# Entry
Amino acid sequence: MAMLRGGIVSNWWRRIDPLPSSEIPRRLTDANLRWHQNRYGDPDPDPAYAPHVFGEHTPFISVTAGTVERDAVHYRHEFYPAWEVALRFATDGWRRDGFVFACYVFILGRKSVPHQAFAEELRELNIYTDFSLFKPEGEITAKISIPPPQIEKFDYYNISDVWQAFNTNRLPTPTKTVLNPLYQLPSDISNVRGYLL
# Structure
């Protein structure tokens, strides 16, 4: 419930509160974004946070929108839906109960790493062209925090219910859902008046 009222914050903010705003530009860099994506569990390269692993002080928040990978050998696409990726992470690889948050973030369709308000679409190969083993996670990376009006709800999943659903060829359903009364539909604040097809 606290995350619905206060937002989802980065591990860095969770460890250092109040967050030193003067350090934010120094932490929101391309190098740190790559470290977050590919070296999350490695020692932090910033001497101020050594010998801790980078993930303990990351200014980024991983969310997923799912993705599609091309299997050129078998002439097909591999689909990684957002709910499945999120639930796998929430349950620590299907080992424990977990919470999945439904929320939205704003992306520009181009790199905007120093700009805290916009998330990075790491799954977009036309923007982020470096190879990553983690592309199937369909990552969208928020920065510093996701405010309460952007969080629609959270779903709680009991891992035994998840396994029972998988064993009977059903999709898992949440044990409990909690809606956020502070949520604001993105369409309520959009200034897009129309678009061309």
